[in-house]
Design goal:
The complex is a heterodimer of chains A (137) and B (191). In chain A, 31% of the residues lie in helices and 0% in strands. Chain A has 137 residues and is mainly alpha-helical. Chain A has one domain: Flavocytochrome C3, Chain A, domain 2 (Orthogonal Bundle). Chain A starts with a helix and ends in a 51-residue tail after the last helix. Classes of the chains: A mainly alpha (137), B mainly alpha (191). The interface between A and B is large, with 37 and 45 residues.
Chain lengths: 137, 191
Amino acid sequence: MKTYNIPILLLLLMGGVILLVLNVNEPKTYVMDVNSNSKYPIKSYHQELQLECKNCHGEGSEEDYEELEDEQCLTCHKSKEYLAQRISFMEKDKTSPHNSYHDGTTLSCYECHHSHEKSVNMCADCHNVETWMKPIK
Amino acid sequence: MKKTIIIVCIGIVIGLLVSLGTYKGVKETAGDKFCILCHSMEPMVEVYKEDVHGGNNALGIKAKCVSCHLPQDTLMNYLYVKAKNGAVEVAITAFGKPENINWYKKRAHRKSFVYDSGCLSCHTNILEQTNAENPKQLEMHKHYESKLLTNKKLSCVSCHISSGHESLRNKLNELKPEYKPVMNVIDGGGH
């Protein structure tokens, strides 16, 4: 390495260290408007996208809102096969809930996921799943 | 006078050489071949190559790493973030412990290292589209647009979580599993 390059490299490294210390590369966070008192609170990941009722339930009157069909969830979440593919690493141990040992990819979203209340883990009805997966959001 | 002309000519030649050097440097450090020089980037590059953005498409078109991971709005911003990231990453590789980075957590911060200006410089008409196979796409892109001028701006990767590295979570699990191996799940693991 040519000697005149060394000060430049040192400066670059020092700059990097300073930036690391200042942590300027960390993401900015913002506080979400969480309306937990709502009759139909939504999950944090949907809040983060600032989804409104109409985004899932359509433009109709709120009184007419109905529970969604799986197909409606999948207009955003693509397909059950796609969701299974995203966690295919779990298939090695036959623990993938999206490509279940018992039901394949046929389970209804609602078996585990509930948009307006606490989700449940259906696998936990029969299995000790604590080491298999995180709590379902 | 003659001396001034010589100095100006030398200046132009030096200027051109510096510009060429900068251009070459910026270009050569833009793609996966350079990024993979850091061992810690290997899983990301590996799954990128399997992804539609990494050339796994009918035409073999590839988005470069910097197409998404550097801002594409202004040249100054591009060069500033490139220099800043370069310095931080050299420092981490030289003094830090890149093997201890929790990539699962990093993925949750994707908004800080994937730039909408990058996505939109290729997907140029995505927000003006009026027809789509899935109408939900149009609705959600309008939703994105409606938040652009607010202080709660969304990012492309707010929804398109794993774009560019579709099977990254699977790859990371090969290297550092999220869960302990499950023994005998089927044969007696249940209770």
